Amino acid sequence: MTQIEAARRGRITEALQTAAAAEGRRAEELLPLVADGRIVIPCNPLHPGLRPMGIGNSLRTKVNVNLGTSQDFPGLEKELAKVDISLAHGADTLMDLSTGGDLPAIRQRILARAPIPLGTVPIYQAGIRAIERHGSMLAMSSDDMFAAVEDQAREGVDFMTVHCGLTIKAIERLRRQGRVADVVSRGGAFHLAWILHHGKENPFYEQFDRLLELARAHDITISLGDGLRPGSIADATDRAQIEELLTLGELVQRAWDAGVQVMVEGPGHIPLDQVEMNMKLQKRVCREAPFYVLGPLVTDIGAGYDHIVSAIGGALAASAGADFLCYVTPAEHLGLPSAEDVREGLIASRIAAHAADIVKDVPGARARDKAMSEARKRLDWTAQQALAIDPEKFARVRGERKTSTEACSMCGEFCAMRVVAEFLGRPGKDHDGPC
User: Count of CB atoms within 10 A of residue 11's CB?
Assistant: First the structure.
């Protein structure tokens, strides 16, 4: 029985209990939201040591970390180091997007190491196997695609991105639209090339019921991928993107009817003035299913700093209704991220998520900020470090730049709030930025 099926029967599963406790909520509160599909709990029973968590309505905004090998950098150990960094810095989920090396072995090592939900894109494995066996990604069959899904489900993968909305009709809409950046989704490009080469419909769309059977058997959360997401702000909210979204909205209902958990992936590059509208449009079309966004990136020129670009868009998107942010690293558009890139990208997205949670009045969000302000007023550096989103960097900078006073080295003895507190007759001391 899947999580959504159990919830519809009024059954509180162990996974729901764990997810609710992590939010400081009662499982009974979340039960109807899981039953309605507005919360998903990616939770494959075959994932060893998994700590289930929820994504969706009224919950803390979650952050995903993408990692994985490439053909140029197939080494596993560096990716495992990124897993450790992700866990240490508060990632909620991981996605293994490996395309180089022994893919099943890589997944198994990550699954064994990470007690948080793991996602994949099965079309990568199907395409790479076709290249290895036949010399071309286009040689994969529809059975190869479904075999990759089943293999990964049996390994313990918790959620999978499948580009079911990239159909023949959507491709024709793309042709007529005309784009600056065409298709920037790797999985979307695999599907588009296969469809045009074979002159056949996308198997994941045409045989969606087959996909749902596999997902239900392993309680895989289907993440409906946006193969036609805009990769340039000039392409944002165009007809091709909306055509795919309309199809995804229909597939959400079919997944729910089949007792399968489902979330929907959202656009990549969107100018600031279109972010809120995109979030509300998706929520409307997809009936409040959890929304998973890459960024979004609000300008195209931030190469080297796209974690900042993404955090700007992510904060706005999540405050407008997105439930799940996929991090972006400084190396986006440049190369495979380093371990440090992973850390910076994750922290940036977590800041965006928390900023949105304040707006959404997620329990505990405002209280944490207030506690930080109170600790600053007391010049309680220990409490500040514990409350900081990156305690390691806090400790490093503080250690490098101490002064002879209790305040920080920006103002020292001229700390504004300490001076004012003395004149107001209050005992607190603090620092709140440059004088």
Answer: 13
Supply φ then ψ for residue 223, to 5 degrees: -110, 105
Please, how many CA atoms are within 13 Å of residue 44, restricted to the half-sphere of its CB? Answer: 28
> Domains plus CATH for the chain?
3-359 (3.20.20.540), 365-424 (no CATH)
Backbone angles phi, psi at 151, to 5 degrees: -60, -45
pLDDT band of residue 82 (cuts 50, 70, 90) is very high
3-state class (DSSP) for residue 148: helix
Q: Is the dihedral of CA 357, 360, 362, 364 positive or negative?
A: positive
For residues 297-325, give the mean pLDDT: 98
Distance, CA of 79 to CA of 103 (rounded, Å): 12
Alpha helices in 57-167 (DSSP H): 76-88, 103-113, 122-134, 142-155
Residue 408 confidence (pLDDT) above 80: no
Strands 55-56 and 39-40: antiparallel
What residue has token string 């042709």? 175
Q: Return the exposure string of 259-278: e unless at least 16 CB atoms fall within 10 Å of the residue's CB, then b.
A: bbbbbbbbbbbbbeebbeeb
Instruction: Give CA–CA dist 431/417, Å, rounded.
Output: 6
Q: Where is 264: in which H helix or E strand?
A: strand 262-266
Nearby residues of 211 by Cβ (< 8 Å), 6 or more positions away: 146, 149, 162, 164, 204, 222
> Would the pTM count as exceeding 0.90?
yes
Q: Are 189 and 121 in contact (CB under 8 A)?
A: no
